[in-house]
Specification:
Elements: H1 3-26, H2 28-36, E1 40-43, E2 46-49, H3 52-58, E3 74-77, H4 84-93, E4 96-99, H5 105-122, E5 127-132, E6 135-139
Parallel strand pairs: 3-4
Antiparallel strand pairs: 1-2, 4-6, 5-6
Length: about 140
């Protein structure tokens, strides 16, 4: 069997896992949100049902109530520096969670500088808190 046919067979065999993994990496935020919404699973004769409150605890989220001080927190996933305008407009309305996990490191650094200036420059009581590696909370 010629080498080109062997290589072609390897490519045909490996292409679907590569495409699947690439898709999961690119859309990891959306996939995690999708799984957070799953309330019932049936597969291979097994069934599982999840209570929303239990699912929220598993994600580290507080149950939804209107009594929380940040009930109207907006969330923005920033990938480019052009998203800075959206962050500023959202911050005018109240607290904002800024997710920079999808941004390049250089863009993320520039956006952190921007949001730190936004938080302090627009209000002396403004604050920025890091909630995880590339996720920040801006509030007054």
């Amino acid at each position: 069997m010629p080498t080109s046919l062997v290589v072609l067979e390897y490519v045909k065999t490996l292409i679907w896992p590569v495409v699947l993994l690439t898709t999961l990496v690119v859309f990891r935020v959306e996939v995690s949100k999708l799984f957070a919404r799953v309330s019932r699973v049936e597969a291979m004769g097994a069934k599982a049902e999840f209570d929303k409150a239990v699912a929220d605890v598993g994600l580290g989220l507080a149950p939804e109530t209107d009594s929380t001080p940040y009930a109207d927190v907006q969330s923005i996933v920033a990938t480019t520096y052009e998203d800075a305008r959206d962050i500023a407009e959202a911050y005018e309305d109240g607290p904002v969670i800024v997710d920079l996990s999808m941004a390049d490191n250089d863009i993320a650094k520039r956006l952190v500088d921007f949001i730190a200036g936004l938080a302090r420059g627009s209000n002396p009581r403004g604050a920025i808190e890091r909630t995880s590696a590339k996720v920040f909370l801006l509030h007054r």
